[in-house]
Amino acid sequence: MKFTHMKLHEWVKKMAEMCRPDRIVWIDGSEEEKARLEKEAFATDELIQLNQKKMPGSVFHRTAANDVARTEHLTYICTSHKADAGPTNNWLPPKTGYAKAKAIFKNAMKGRTMYVIPFSMGPVGSPFSKIGVELTDSIYVVLNMRIMTTIGAPVLKILGGDGEFTKCLHSKADLDINRRLILHFPEDNTIWSVGSGYGGNVLLGKKCLSLRIASYLGYQEGWMAEHMLIMGVEKPNGHVVYIAAAFPSACGKTNLAMLVPPKGLAKKGYKIWTVGDDIAWMRIDTDGGLWAINPETGFFGVAPGTNSKTNPNAVATIKSNTIFTNVLLKPDKTVWWEGADGPVPSRGIDWRGRPWKPGLTDENGEVIKAAHPNSRFTAPIMQCPTASFRLKHHHGVPISAIIFGGRRAHVAPLVYESFNWQHGVYVGATMASERTAAQYGAEGEVRRDPMAMLPFCGYNMGDYFRHWLRMGKNMQTPPKIFNVNWFRTDSEGRFLWPGYGENLRVLEWIADRCEKTAEAIKTPIGYTPTPRSLDLTGLKLPAGNLDKLLSIDKEAWEKEMDQHEEFFKQFGKTLPTELKQELSNQRSRFKKV
Ligand code: OXD
Ligand code: MN
Fold it and tell me: Does residue 251 carry a catalytic annotation?
């Protein structure tokens, strides 16, 4: 390896002195390298090769049983001043963070290889993109990063002799949850993650760089890193209206990004283009509008519930070259999860590596799941049948609409459009999702999750809201901002809206509003569709459902706005006055009805 980037070389050397790997391997991203790493991982059981006839190029991995999801309570923003991390993040002073992690990283790679992965988030060489270098002792991480980002030689070339990069250090160490830390040092452009092997904690290009560090960089540099899918809605006239949408976890972001138009709308000529399912980086371009790229090149999607009905495009995407994590391994070396296509297998090895058969219960009489509820697939976006032809475009796609959404049994109507950007920021800042009895927590319990960024904003959220307001002012043609709710129920708890592909009917109204061709009614919370402006042909919606879906309950909204006020209090002086103003304006509008 010929080093031209001395700072990079010195950093790798320093980290190796701390972690003490037996050897250091620079990742070039080639096919030969992939084959060599897979072979090595098969030999140690870090990976299991799946049935190559039925699932060519696909492999399987199990994480430790205590390491199956992001660990938010062990995730910190380490800034010199606590106020810069804000009231919604865990905080440590950088010195303390480094010292705590150092104690765990020390000698952690003894007997192991340290892989050096140069990676680009966003198309290599695009002015929208950022470069990172991840050091890791996990082949699983290398192979995932290979799918989720662009890695190796082309990235080093762009980095040249002195290019800026995010320093990302990861070690599995001993996978002890008591010795696990996910630390972000935005002031040093550095991430240290230790003691985990779970994707969200260790694929450092994803949540850590592309959201937490990137949101901070965006704040400094005047752009936005958001927890949003990006999709194109191609209208019958050939216009593609691009939409970015933020939803908290478990609200169907991946499904929406790959939506299949229902028959009626497909016949009309609608098509969907998938740009991304999780992260959007957005900048104001020379036309004064907001343009977005998906910094990732793959999906790290939740497997359970994915089938040919809920998401046929995901099923097609994961047919080959996919890494499956924590699903059921069947005797024929194929995989299964709760809610997968096909019959429930009669036996297999569960996500914890134990023999499994249907109906098996644990010591508390609870049915043992074959796959972990957060089991995942990692698959290349280019394998998705609806992958956008704009994916490699250096400036991405022009965004016409931003959608916020959550899971609300009541209160929020099916869709509404904010009055303007500032009002839209208020809508996003007060976003929430409700838990239902069938899920976790107490029914009706509301978790506020502004812009779906609560776990991912790398700085003070009060400043983040101010940044959103500033971005709006800097745009000549800001996107319109909408709110949707697919989850409204009737008094018996039945969903009023069918969801999935039928959501395109709402997207059609949104796209038409962007092109000023759809009717709307002015309400105290924004514009809602007139009943005839939503195309429901072919949809057997029970009588009365549409009225209920679009109704606005004054009393419920008054309670809701009390909660907004309460939620805002924690931000103290950092809360922009514009948001208080929007709340007060909305209260006044309700008084008039
Ligand atoms: C998430 C994810 O946790 O995308 O939001 O994995
Ligand atoms: Mn996500």
Answer: yes
